[in-house]
Design a protein that fits this description.
With 677 residues, this protein is α+β, with helices and mostly antiparallel strands. It contains 26 helices and 22 strands. 38% of the residues lie in helices and 19% in strands. 34% of the residues are buried. The structure holds 2-(butylsulfanyl)adenosine (IVH). 2-(butylsulfanyl)adenosine binds next to β3, β8 and β11.
Length: 677
């Protein structure tokens, strides 16, 4: 029987409210572990949500049964004042650095001489985040402290508690143990937050490390919780009775305590193996979903570690190999302005093309006017660039010493470069916006967003078609889309009768996507695809929504006060109301529609999609399969009955093979769905 089933069993057999509450706390904590640490959930979201609600009800009725490890207790009250200082019982040392294979070998030689034998090493990824020390007393999470200067750190207990992969209780733990590791922000989260901040006109984070640091130092733990940080455990601090003898045993113990341990560690028997691992990760690290800035080489045996000892600053039994940062020099040929759908003017550096971390880079975002001013970046400057979070090209700094005197200082335009309306900068925001709500550049971006996959999902209406439609003066707002006729479309270049028919059909179909998607499609500040769905479930009609107050919105758990204010503000504007009425008159559905399943051919199948399908996007394929009764999940487990594999399918495919799960490649998949589209 799986642990989950044992816990479910205990819950169903609970004899009284107290037992029931505690069984539910343990059951849901285990679900959290399977979801956040193992990345292999065994329970449906729906069932989890239901049980979670039940736990909240039980705890509300019986607060005496709330425990500090209950999953409901992750987000605590706001803090007042500063983070208290805490002295570390055992200092949190830093690491000496090495920069090439010769230095790695010299480190190995020093270690070998001192010990009198060749030790084993554990080589780990060096995660680029913030070191945190977490105290556990009798298994209970009691305190979390930042590294600080190594001797004294800051008490960030309330914020670290919100990190879902950090256990609030560890079973079979020694009476006292401190777990050390790295709090970090995954790339996906970094991008999501920056997109949100950009839309809101708040300064974007420069890199995931800064974003993680900022998130840990929030006075409101709810804010930290919304940032979805993660934590990799890799060391212990003070402890009583842990009985661990090597780094490998330590990592295994941390796994058994249900911490997230980075899986990419290796036990090396020779220093050549160490050098080989480092070379491997130099390339491979760019494919990881989080930032690393090197590798950490640790002598495995604790006895050997003790013999080697430490200097005041760092241990002699470990060192950090630092990868040369992927930073490249180039020239800013020009600074251009991009206008987003919220009307924000974003300056972009047009660069002399250079090769960085695997791709050619010719443009880099300069975020906003303040960023350019602070870094004093001028047109014509030599600059250093890199890729933030391995994807987003960014200017690190300019080289003023290389100036010839011909460089031009850039200032943000006072007029919109597209419609010449004055630009405005709202109080407290760094963003500069076009003041014209009907600016053609803004309308264009709004239409592209409106048609996009997670919004109204209008197939065949990508950015280039939108651009052409505007150029041919066939549309200027999203409402115009629903007035387009085939006859109008075929007047356009490269638009045949069949494509025109398809486009008109796709546009018509999008009318019934429902309120949730429509809310996202309208591009209301801070309202993402998920928020749109959540709101539509609570307020299933547009009319109800348009008359809702800020206070009513904040009763929805996932809607914070700034989102609520943004919604109310949106519906206040007369031109937004006019647009909604126009869409309604054109037949766009203003209620949440419940999608009717098209068939049940796949009932009972649990399907995982992996890799890239040539014929359709992964979400589209998933929606199609789900509409025929399949359950779609994100990770392969024993419950998976079918894996649909596209190009470059990776570890999920390997895992499916090892579990003997049916694998369906694209040709067979197309065969399967051939009559459904
Ligand atoms: S071991 C005495 N392991 O690197 C051992 N540190 O420059 C100290 N770091 O402050 C730490 N990944 O923030 C260790 N796998 C890893 C690490 C790691 C990242 C950071 C940590 C530490 C800094 C030392």
């Amino acid at each position: 029987m799986t642990v989950l089933n044992q816990l479910k069993d205990a819950y169903s057999k609970a004899a009284n409210v107290e037992e029931k509450t505690h069984a539910l706390q343990q059951l849901l904590a285990h679900c959290g572990y399977l979801y956040y640490v193992k990345d292999a959930p065994e329970m449906e979201d729906y069932e989890y949500d239901k049980l979670y609600r039940e736990l909240v009800e039980l705890e509300t009725a019986h607060p005496e049964y709330i425990t500090s490890y209950s999953p409901t207790q992750r987000v605590g009250a706001k803090l007042t004042g500063d983070f208290p200082k805490v002295i570390h019982g055992r200092p949190m040392l830093s690491l000496s650095n090495v920069f090439n294979a010769d230095e790695v070998r010299a480190f190995g030689e020093r270690v070998r001489k001192e010990l009198g034998h060749t030790p084993e090493y554990v080589v780990e990824l060096k995660i680029d985040g913030l070191a945190v020390n977490i105290h556990y007393e009798n298994g209970l999470f009691t305190r979390a402290v930042t590294r600080g200067d190594g001797k004294v750190g800051e008490d960030v207990t309330a914020n670290v508690r919100t990190i879902q992969s950090v256990p609030l209780y560890i079973e079979n733990a020694p009476p006292y143990i401190e777990i050390r590791g790295e709090a970090y922000m995954p790339h996906k989260e970094f991008q999501r937050i920056n997109e949100e901040r950009e839309a809101a006109g708040i300064a974007t984070f420069v890199n995931p490390r800064n974003a993680a640091a900022g998130s840990l130092r929030q006075l409101d733990p709810a804010m930290t919780a919304s940032r979805n940080l993660d934590f990799f455990a890799y060391a212990i601090g003070m402890e009583e009775g842990a009985n661990i003898h090597s780094q490998k045993e330590l990592l295994e113990a941390l796994e058994s305590y249900h911490f997230h341990v980075n899986p990419h560690y290796t036990l090396c028997h020779t220093i050549d193996d160490v050098v080989e691992r480092i070379a491997y990760w130099d390339e491979e690290r760019h494919n990881l979903p989080y930032d690393t800035d090197g590798m950490v080489i640790k002598v495995n045996s604790f006895e050997d570690q003790e013999q080697l000892g430490a200097t005041v600053k760092d241990p002699r039994w470990a060192t950090a190999y630092k990868y040369a940062p992927d930073e490249v020099e180039t020239i800013v040929n020009d600074i251009t302005i991009n206008i987003g759908r919220t009307g924000v003017l974003t300056p972009t550096a047009e660069l002399e093309p250079v090769f960085v971390s695997g791709t050619n880079v010719a443009r880099a975002t300069l975020h906003n006017g303040d960023f350019i001013k602070d870094k004093d970046i001028r047109i014509g400057d030599h600059v250093l660039i890199h890729k933030a979070a391995e994807i987003i090209p960014e200017v690190i700094k300019a080289f003023p010493e290389k100036r010839t005197g011909n460089e031009v200082v850039f200032t943000m335009p006072t007029q919109c470069p597209i419609c010449n309306s004055p630009t405005v900068r709202r109080e407290g925001e760094v963003a500069v916006r076009c003041s014209n709500p009907h600016c053609p550049a803004v309308e264009k971006e709004k239409i592209i967003h409106f048609a996009s996959r997670d919004a109204m999902n209008i197939e065949g209406l990508g950015p280039s078609i939108v651009e052409s439609l505007i150029r041919y003066k066939l549309i200027s707002t999203v409402a115009d889309l629903y007035k387009l006729t085939e006859d109008q479309l075929i007047t356009m270049e490269r638009m045949g009768k069949k494509s025109a028919q398809n486009l008109v059909k796709a546009i018509a179909e999008s009318k019934s996507r429902g309120l949730g998607r429509l809310l996202f499609a309208l591009g209301i500040r801070l309202i993402g695809a998920k928020a749109g769905q959540t709101i539509a479930q609570q307020f299933p009609s547009m009319d109800a929504l348009m008359n809702t107050t800020e206070e009513d919105f904040t009763h929805i758990a996932e809607i914070g006060p700034t989102m609520a204010a943004s919604l109310v503000q949106y519906f206040k504007e007369p031109h937004h109301r006019e647009l909604i009425e126009e869409l309604r008159a054109l037949g766009v559905v203003m209620e949440e529609t419940i999608e009717v399943p098209q068939g049940d051919e796949l009932a009972g199948e649990t399907i995982v999609l992996t890799g890239t399908l040539a014929s359709m996007g992964r979400k589209e394929a998933g929606d199609l399969l789900a509409s025929h009764g399949a359950k779609i999940t994100g990770s392969v487990s024993k419950k998976t009955t079918m894996v649909i594999a596209g190009e470059e399918a990776g570890s999920k495919l390997t895992k499916a093979e090892s579990l003997g799960i049916r694998i369906v490649y694209e040709a067979e998949f197309l065969e399967l769905i051939k009559d459904w589209q």
